[in-house]
Design brief:
With 373 residues, this protein is mainly beta. The protein contains 6 helices and 25 strands. It has one domain: 3 Solenoid (Pectate Lyase C-like). Strands 1-2-5-8-11-14-17-20-23-25 form a 10-stranded parallel beta sheet. An 8-stranded parallel beta sheet has the order 3-6-9-12-15-18-21-24, covered by helices on one side. The chain is globular.
Length: 373
């Protein structure tokens, strides 16, 4: 879907409902209806939900109509939020006290439940100043033990609508907690869509993304987490504001130097809306707050489409920290973007090295793929 049309359908709940294939709101929808029909099998007493459960529905057929209100009620650990189909236009913070939380899209289709807002790093704040990259996030997850299924996390801020703003980072979700798992979720944005990070330089937060879809243009999967992306689809967007490549970068890890493991991408695929070879696979981010960072990225057994520049798939973010000095590697990738034409531009694992580049090694004693769904 074209980015502009996506933003427009997310901008209003009525347009979003039609574009997402949702039923039109019934007459008198503001009045809570009997029962919890929009929650499918998750509204049944026999549903396998652990801990305390709250139901969220923008049409008033649940316990709360917004994510914020539900979180205000769900203090402490172990809460499950079940979301009825709809668009939740708000910013959301799951703070460190709300551990072991689970969010579920009731329809079991991530396109039906959209949490979205439109702040960018350069957006002016009401009290002065700007939001910055972290403050631009639509959703921020600080708590450990978070799980999300069948939910779309989005930031629909567009450069074309704000030519006066130079801070164009616009985060859909920032994840900082350890043991954070996302299954069958979507992450929509442009620059800095998915911020897979940690709460501190010394905190090696483990995160797992399975069967997820992520789209964007510049550094749209970035941060210092130890994160595994398994069977994910990453899609680079077209850009009409640029006359020449590169249009952007898929990954920008900022792994702490003391952390032996950064991002692992396995059995996934990278596709593109843009012309061939207009995107780099990655560039290392060494932030000013941690100049000792050694970004780490391994991409294995993944299909790289023609949108990736096969000749020179990596680039520098800063010449002071060349990508060749970082921890980038590939193993048995396929597709036109994976063709090795200049061997020194494609660092590759040996078979022996690949034996330890697995989800088990990266995530240790935490095995989220055993939890089902």
């Amino acid at each position: 879907m074209h980015p502009v049309s996506r933003r427009r359908f997310l901008a209003t709940s009525a347009g979003a409902a039609a574009a997402l294939g949702l039923a039109a709101p019934p007459a008198g929808a503001a009045t809570p209806a009997a029962g919890r029909r929009p929650f499918g099998r998750f509204g049944s007493p026999t549903a396998r939900l652990t801990g305390q459960t709250l139901y969220v529905d923008p049409l008033g057929r649940g316990d709360h109509t917004s994510v914020r209100d539900a979180l205000a009620a769900a203090s402490g650990s172990g809460w499950t939020l079940v979301f009825a189909p709809g668009v939740y236009r708000e910013t959301v913070l799951l703070d460190v006290t709300r551990t072991e939380a689970t969010w579920i899209g009731a329809s079991e289709n991530a396109k039906d439940v959209v949490i979205v807002y439109d702040n960018a790093a350069g957006t002016p704040k009401p009290g002065g100043g700007t939001y910055g990259t972290t403050g631009s996030a639509t959703t921020t997850v600080q708590a450990d033990g978070f799980t999300a299924r069948w939910i779309t996390f989005a930031n629909d801020w567009l450069r074309a609508d704000h030519p006066d703003i130079v801070g164009t980072q616009a985060v859909a979700i920032k994840v900082q907690g350890d043991r954070s798992a996302f299954r069958h979720c979507r992450f929509l944005g442009h620059q800095d869509t998915l911020y897979a990070d940690s709460r501190a330089l010394t905190a090696f937060a483990r995160q797992y993304f399975a069967d997820c879809y992520v789209e964007g243009d510049v550094d749209f999967v970035f941060g210092r987490a130890t994160a595994v992306y398994e069977r994910c689809h990453l899609r680079t967007l077209n850009r009409t504001d640029l006359a020449a490549a590169p249009y952007g970068f898929v990954f920008a890890p900022s792994t702490a130097g003391a952390n032996p493991l950064g991002y692992l991408v396995t059995r996934s695929r990278v596709s593109s809306e843009a012309p061939d070879a207009c995107y780099k696979l990655a560039r290392p981010w060494v932030p000013s707050s941690d100049t000792t960072a050694r970004p780490s990225l391994t991409v294995r057994e993944t299909r790289l489409g023609p949108g990736i520049d096969a000749v020179a798939p990596y680039a520098n973010m800063s010449d002071a920290f060349p990508w060749q000095s970082q921890r980038f590697a590939e193993y048995r990738n396929t597709g036109p973007g994976a063709v090795v034409t200049v061997p020194e531009n494609r660092p590759r694992l040996t078979r022996e090295q690949a034996e330890s580049a697995t989800r088990e090694t990266y995530l240790g004693d935490w095995r989220p793929w055993k939890d089902g769904c």
